[in-house]
């Protein structure tokens, strides 16, 4: 049966008188036991003292009763101190229990937050994996494009070497033709000078002979005819030389016509060089794009590694919190049941 919080003075008086009637000493514990273990010992002691003072028995108390009364009072004081200490300990226990429950709630909230963060991390990791796959595909495409442009550059270089060899061959032909024309001109000039010299010499001879003929006109008719014939031959030689000159001039015109297409070779060579420079610039751009893709891939790999580290840290912290929260729950549950 649970004790009441307070007792009445009449109840203490009735219990004391019942003990005296039974021949027992009305001590505090005996009176409390007679009342059914109800009431505070201090209150019972106070009521007994008041009853003794009212009945005038204070001066007739025996030494043993005084000692017993002192013991009862000490016991009541100790009981009060014990109840006070128990109340304080119970309050402390309830405070610690409340702190444990608060800490447990915080840990549960933190676990839920970490779980949510873990889910977000997994989603981010999956997205990073997808981005990494896309970057790898882009890198493969860039490598293919780079190989294709490299092949185009090699083909352009081969064509450039072929055009350079053809141009060199045409320049050699042009140089040989120019040398042949110059040699022909020199030969024709030397032949004309030789013919002119011979003609002048012949004219001089004719003039001498003419003077001689004038001196002896009558005897030199045959010589005049012979000189006329020689003059005709010289005229034929001059005409033949003129025909040769015309023929050489026609050959020169033909050589010029053959050389004319060669004048476009520098322009074609310039265009080929421009195409080569454009191809090199395009290749440079592709190489820069490839380098950017490689850097992006390295950044994606670094982010992927950082996310894996963050995920491992979150998992370790989650396991540590779970392992730390389970032992704390059991003592808290036992203490709460005991209370």
From TrEMBL:
Name assigned to this protein: Chromosome segregation ATPase
Region of interest (Disordered), ranges: 184-203
Organism: Silvimonas terrae
Protein keywords: Coiled coil
Alphabetized Gene3D superfamilies for the sequence: 1.10.287.1490
Pfam families for this protein: KfrA_N
Domain KfrA N-terminal DNA-binding: 9-118
Compositional bias per record (Basic and acidic residues), positions renumbered to this chain: 184-202
Coiled-coil regions listed in the entry: 290-317
Xref: InterPro entries: KfrA_DNA-bd_N (IPR021104)
Membrane-spanning ranges: none
